[in-house]
Every structure is written in structure tokens, then in C-alpha cells.
Design brief:
five-stranded parallel beta sheet, globular, single chain, alpha/beta, two-stranded antiparallel ribbon, Rossmann fold
Length: about 210
């Protein structure tokens, strides 16, 4: 559990002094490899890398993450009792200077693999709202999303979910990129501005000075 001493317990246990936050974490929420989400986040990473932003990719589809069981243990400790690949996700997100989540829209929300990862941040919610641990320094974040439907309104559910996550992990949303009418694998490459905009987002986030917790 975080404390005023600057020593932090991981949500899965173990105390350690965190290094300064650095790099741009790209969290891929799509179950489809090589699809539009991957292409957009690769463009984000390219932009970040061009300004020394040290991009890192995590793919929800490759993680062994069990669903939150609602056991309530983290309400008392601020730590999760489940031992799986969320330890990697917690460490990557805690250590990043900026975070970009990429996701398609499935039934007005993020896909189940991505939502399962987000739900496992309940220990962070408990730390903030039940245990009274003050927030850390804010860092920038963004949601990059696609939807097959030809309507911008379909992004609102995914956006609210990601913003709820960002609120408890000390991230302020600086920019979102939403592309409707994008469904077939690789269709984003036919969009006239999408990949350029994703690269520009990566440069913007990657150029920011590293923040310390």
C-alpha cells in the first residue's frame, strides 16, 4: 500500500521504492492481432520513439489475467490476492510517464479482455476512495478507439470506462482519437489522417518530461 514515505507496495504485494516514471505505455485492448487497434498503437509508438519516448507494448490478448471475483480483500489492504499477469500490468502502468489505451468498440464498450484488465484495478480504487491514500502526480493519457458503426456516439461507453480507470491511476486524459466506420482488418490504413494523427499523439506524449510518483 502506498504511503507518505515514498515506498510503495505493489497491488499484488511486496514493498519497493519505485523508479522515476518514464516512457509511453501502449495497452492493446483488441483480441484481434494485427488489426486496426494494433496499427494505431504502432503509429503512436513510432511517434513516441521519434522523440525518445521509450514506448512499450502490452497486449491484453497475450496476458493471463483472471477476472476480478469481487472478494473485497483489496478494500482492506489495497492489494489484489490473485496472482497472475496483472503484476506485469500494474508495474508497467505505475512506471509509465504516459499511457495510451487502444481498443475497438464492442457493444458500446471495450472488449472483454480489456475490460477484465481494467476491472482488476479495483485495488487502486480502494486505495484512493476507501483507504484515503492521496493521489500521485498526474501524467497524461489517451484512448485510441475504432468502431464499425458510422456514428461517433458509440464511443461514449468505452470513453467513460477508460476515464474511470484513469481517475484512480493518476492519469489525466489529454487527447482521444476516435474513428468510426472502421471495421475490416487494416481498414484504418485507408483513413486519410488516422495514422498521422496517432503518430502526432505519440510525439506529444513521448516528448513530455518524465514525471516522478
Amino acid at each position: 500500500m502506498a504511503s507518505g514515505s515514498g515506498v510503495t507496495d505493489s497491488p499484488q504485494g511486496g514493498a519497493a521504492s519505485p523508479p522515476p516514471r518514464a516512457g509511453v505505455l501502449c495497452l492493446h485492448g483488441s483480441p484481434r492481432a494485427g488489426g486496426n487497434t494494433d496499427l494505431l498503437l504502432e503509429a503512436v509508438a513510432s511517434g513516441a520513439n521519434s522523440v525518445g519516448g521509450q514506448p512499450r507494448h502490452l497486449y491484453c490478448r497475450d496476458l493471463d489475467v483472471r477476472p476480478c471475483t469481487g472478494c473485497g480483500a483489496c478494500s482492506a489492504t489495497g492489494r489484489c490476492v490473485i496472482r497472475d499477469d496483472m503484476a506485469t500490468v500494474y508495474a508497467a502502468l505505475d512506471g509509465a510517464a504516459a499511457v495510451v489505451i487502444g481498443s475497438p468498440v464492442y457493444f458500446l464498450g471495450v472488449p472483454s479482455l480489456c475490460k477484465g484488465v481494467i476491472d482488476r484495478f479495483q485495488p487502486y480504487w480502494a486505495r484512493r476512495h476507501l483507504l484515503g491514500i492521496p493521489p500521485g502526480a498526474l501524467r497524461p493519457g489517451a484512448l485510441v478507439a475504432t468502431a464499425g458503426a458510422p456514428s461517433h456516439s458509440v464511443f461514449s461507453g468505452a470513453q467513460r470506462t477508460v476515464e474511470a480507470l484513469f481517475e484512480v491511476v493518476d492519469i489525466t486524459c489529454k487527447a482521444n482519437l476516435f474513428y468510426e466506420g472502421i471495421d475490416a482488418r487494416g481498414a484504418i490504413t485507408d483513413h486519410p489522417t488516422a495514422l498521422d494523427e496517432a503518430q502526432a499523439l505519440g510525439r506529444r506524449l513521448g516528448a513530455r518530461p518524465s514525471a516522478t510518483p
